[in-house]
């Protein structure tokens, strides 16, 4: 438990800083562009490289790279082969989109209005080089994670957020103004990669062009890539269905999803990232690491879910309702966030269970779970999205994650302390009731911040009352 708490806390702290700058980024974008056609085009243009970042770079790369890297005697040769082969692949993708930029809106927003489609095509050429930089970043990220270095890699996405923030602030210098944050997105991706270069060199990495050893990596990477790509198809379908529902809905979906990604990135991704290298080289304690990771993930995500459900509308008004972003936009985004939030502990468990399979080089089980999730999401997106509107898309995402979680749980069969999980659930529910009661006392925006801190304090007290081990471990770490 101590190792997971230590590395998880470092990763979570860095991710929290990164996600906070992401929140600042989204607030500025909402203030400047609102939920209109121009921002819709921006979302479509950056979604393609961003999806490849999550599927190609972060997901498949770390899942296949870390277990093999930890086994290799000549680690530099293995990492160099991955950079050489996949570097050529990503450059090819970049060139194809530069030549045929209409591919991006054709894939992601077939029913977008003509002006949105045209602007998204223009912006796609600006955003697509991000793919190459983020691939290089992913390799260095995986190398550092393999050496149990988590803080700086998790902090590096701050550079992308800073790039977009600067582009938004100086957007008046560009024509159209949305070109500013799009350029910032690509420049930020390059800075993310450069941030990890010094740390990787200190670990002894030296790049030498080679293709040797890549075939073994490809055997794990390809099924992981397919699984992650199928998973990201869910996002593509979400955006497509949202484009059917009229202008502004793609933007609202984006704002809600980005806010939901804040706790998921800090807590859910932290556990799954840390547990992969631990399980890869410490196989004798596989069951122990898995149990601790799942319970720690629930300790963090269950109260987060309850808090977001209770305060979703108030949070969206506090964070986004400024400038071009209206009260009506904030209310709509709040409802979408509420339904996304229900899936927070679900997707966190899915992430941990998937990485547990990857640590054993079992790519098939997570792949089947991903296909199941994709099918459920695709069907429910159209059934719910086209009947009850934008909220239905978020509900479909949560239902798809639940089906994936059940499948993985039955296959992996992790051992957890049920009494401990019940204690976490009770502490979260009591905290939620407490915050909900307090929320009726005042309707001001600033009072929302008070409610957040009251919820955190209440959960800490309840964790002490229920004698939750994770709470004690965190305080031990802080004392050290």
From TrEMBL:
GO terms for molecular function: lipid-linked peptidoglycan transporter activity. It is a multi-pass membrane protein. The keyword Ribonucleoprotein does not apply. Keywords: Cell membrane, Cell shape, Cell wall biogenesis/degradation, Membrane, Peptidoglycan synthesis, Transmembrane, Transmembrane helix, Transport. Its main location: membrane. NCBIfam families: murJ_mviN. The gene is murJ. PANTHER family: LIPID II FLIPPASE MURJ (PTHR47019). Belongs to the MurJ/MviN family. The chain crosses the membrane at residues 42-66, 78-97, 117-143, 150-170, 182-205, 217-239, 259-281, 293-311, 331-353, 365-384, 390-410, 422-441, 447-466. This is Probable lipid II flippase MurJ. Pfam families: MurJ. It comes from the Bacteria. It comes from Pseudothermotoga thermarum DSM 5069. One of its GO terms (biological process) is cell wall organization. HAMAP family: MurJ_MviN. Involved in peptidoglycan biosynthesis. Transports lipid-linked peptidoglycan precursors from the inner to the outer leaflet of the cytoplasmic membrane. It is found in: Cell membrane. Pathway: Cell wall biogenesis; peptidoglycan biosynthesis. GO terms for cellular component: plasma membrane.
């Amino acid at each position: 438990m101590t190792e997971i708490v230590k590395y998880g806390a470092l990763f979570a702290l860095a991710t929290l800083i990164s996600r906070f700058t992401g929140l600042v980024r989204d607030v500025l974008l909402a203030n400047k562009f609102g939920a209109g056609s121009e921002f819709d085009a921006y979302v479509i243009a950056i979604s393609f490289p961003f999806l490849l970042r999550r599927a190609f770079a972060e997901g498949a790369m770390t899942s296949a790279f870390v277990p093999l890297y930890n086994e290799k005697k000549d680690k530099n040769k293995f990492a160099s082969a991955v950079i050489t082969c996949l570097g050529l692949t990503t450059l090819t993708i970049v060139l194809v989109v530069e030549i045929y930029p209409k591919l991006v809106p054709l894939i992601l927003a077939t029913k977008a209005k003509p002006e949105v489609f045209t602007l998204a095509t223009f912006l796609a050429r600006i955003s697509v080089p991000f793919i190459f930089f983020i691939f290089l970043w992913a390799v260095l990220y995986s190398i550092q994670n393999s050496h149990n270095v988590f803080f700086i890699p998790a902090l590096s996405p701050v550079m992308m957020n800073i790039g977009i923030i600067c582009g938004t602030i100086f957007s008046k210098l560009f024509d159209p103004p949305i070109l500013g944050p799009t350029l910032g997105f690509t420049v930020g991706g390059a800075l993310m990669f450069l941030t990890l270069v010094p740390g990787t060199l200190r670990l002894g990495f030296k790049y030498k062009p080679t293709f040797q050893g890549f075939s073994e990596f490809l055997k794990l990477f390809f099924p992981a890539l397919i699984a992650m790509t199928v998973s990201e198809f869910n996002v593509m379908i979400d955006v497509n269905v949202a484009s059917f529902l009229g202008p502004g809905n793609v933007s609202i979906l984006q704002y809600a999803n980005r806010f939901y990604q804040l706790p998921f990135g800090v807590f859910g991704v932290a556990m799954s990232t840390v547990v992969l290298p631990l399980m890869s080289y410490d196989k004798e304690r596989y069951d122990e690491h898995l149990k601790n990771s799942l319970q720690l993930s629930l300790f963090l995500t269950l109260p987060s879910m309850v808090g977001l459900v209770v305060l979703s509308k108030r949070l969206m008004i506090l964070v986004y309702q400024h400038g071009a972003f209206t009260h009506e936009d904030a209310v709509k985004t709040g409802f979408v966030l509420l339904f996304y939030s229900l899936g927070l502990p679900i997707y966190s468990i899915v992430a941990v269970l998937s990485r547990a399979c990857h640590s054993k080089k079992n790519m098939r089980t997570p792949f089947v779970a991903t296909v199941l999730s994709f099918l459920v999401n695709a069907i429910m997106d159209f059934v719910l999205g086209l009947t009850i509107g934008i909220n239905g898309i978020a509900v479909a995402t949560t239902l798809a994650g639940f089906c994936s979680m059940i499948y993985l749980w039955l296959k992996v069969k992790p051992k957890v302390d049920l009494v401990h999980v019940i204690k976490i659930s009770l502490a979260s529910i009591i905290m939620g009731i407490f915050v909900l009661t307090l929320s009726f006392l005042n309707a001001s925006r600033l009072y929302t911040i008070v409610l957040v801190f009251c919820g955190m304090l209440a959960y800490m007290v309840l964790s002490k009352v229920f004698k939750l081990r994770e709470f004690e471990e965190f305080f031990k770490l802080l004392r050290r």
